[in-house]
Design a protein that fits this description.
The chain has a twelve-stranded mixed β-sheet with strand order 7-8-9-6-5-4-3-2-1-10-11-12. It has one domain: TIM Barrel. It has ten helices and twelve strands. It is an alpha/beta fold and 333 residues long.
Length: 333
């Protein structure tokens, strides 16, 4: 296929170069904000193979995609994930590969992942108390996550970021300890507002622990937070640095401060459906094209149709918001 000079730009001029790839819907814990306690996972034959994922990424890279993030489910439960990373890193246009993980299996896999070409890690850490961990994850595992963080630091990943989902009535007491932990470990921390993507449909507006509230708690304990320069206009977080030089912290506020105007992300689910938004209610079937022997120009057409249909925003803060039928684990974080 000849390389198209026309990038993936939507009707609002947002240029899309960031692809999130869900490699599995399976997970080894059961965080209630992401998936149900009892779940029927996709048959393995329905998941994209590594070869199919690489085929799709090559088509997307020809249209300007150069940043990848592997998600799930929990991506580290997908066997031989480092081999996929190795193949993706060999695509000339790709210059950034990141992974979002719950960290439970990270200690044993981190070295292989880094050697294969993984550059950055986002590790979920919603709290530092086992009680909080189990209340959210409905499984044990906090110590394994902390071990994974330690191993990743020792291996020298380019960037390790901690992600904490903030839930009113559950995580308030974790805010300051997480801040202290990140400062002490010299890690970037981001708090993420609880979004309506839980599988059991129990999300309520009053469960949202806002970024502004969290910032106030941190400033009361550690002093002023100073707005940081925005390195990338499309990043979802609003970043701050501690005035005393004690590190960087970010707030992802999709509910109270939507950041859709600069969004540059598209997604492909584990079974090969392209989505232009985490909250999209429409999908485009890349697996169908690939498995019937379709050509790259057909994948290009799907990608362009998907981006052309992208809405100005997700609309959580609107009375017209329509909640997607899929939960987070089915979409990819």
């Amino acid at each position: 296929m000849s390389r198209s000079p026309i990038p993936l730009v939507d009707s609002l001029g947002r240029r899309h170069n960031n692809l999130r790839i869900s490699v599995t819907d399976r997970c080894n814990i059961r965080c209630f904000y992401c998936m149900p306690e009892q779940v029927q996972f996709l048959p393995r034959a329905e998941l994209l193979t590594f070869e199919e994922i690489v085929r799709f990424v090559r088509a997307a890279a020809a249209l300007g995609v150069n940043k990848l993030r592997l998600t799930g489910g929990e991506p580290l439960v997908r066997a031989h994930l480092s081999e996929l990373i190795r193949q993706l890193a060999d695509i000339p246009e790709i210059n950034d590969i990141a992974l979002t993980t719950n960290g439970v299996l990270l200690a044993e896999q981190a070295a292989d992942l880094k050697e294969a070409g993984l550059q950055r890690l986002n590790i979920s850490l919603d709290g530092l108390r086992e009680e909080t961990f189990q209340r959210i994850a409905r499984r044990e595992g906090l110590q394994r996550v902390l071990e994974g963080i330690q191993v990743a630091q020792q291996l020298g990943f380019e960037k390790i970021r901690l992600n904490a989902v903030a839930i009113a009535g559950i995580t308030e007491e974790e805010i300051v300890p997480l801040g202290e932990f990140a400062r002490h470990q010299q890690l970037e921390l981001r708090f993420i507002e609880f979004m309506p993507l839980d599988a059991e449909g129990n999300w309520q507006q009053d469960q949202v622990l806002s970024g502004a509230t969290i910032r106030g708690c941190l400033e009361k304990e550690f002093g002023a937070l100073v707005p940081a320069n925005r390195k990338d206009a499309s990043q979802p977080a609003v970043d701050y640095v501690f005035a005393d030089g004690g590190g960087r912290i970010g707030f992802i506020n999709p509910v109270t401060q939507p950041f859709c105007s600069d969004c540059n992300r598209l997604r492909i689910t584990a079974e090969g459906k392209i989505r232009n938004c985490l909250f999209s209610t429409t999908e485009w079937d890349a697996r169908e094209v690939i498995r019937r022997g379709g050509e790259d120009h057909e994948l290009e057409a799907l990608l362009r149709d998907c981006i052309a249909a992208k809405k100005p925003g997700h609309g959580i803060d609107s009375d017209e918001f329509v909640r997607p039928q899929r939960a987070m684990y089915e979409i990819g974080g």
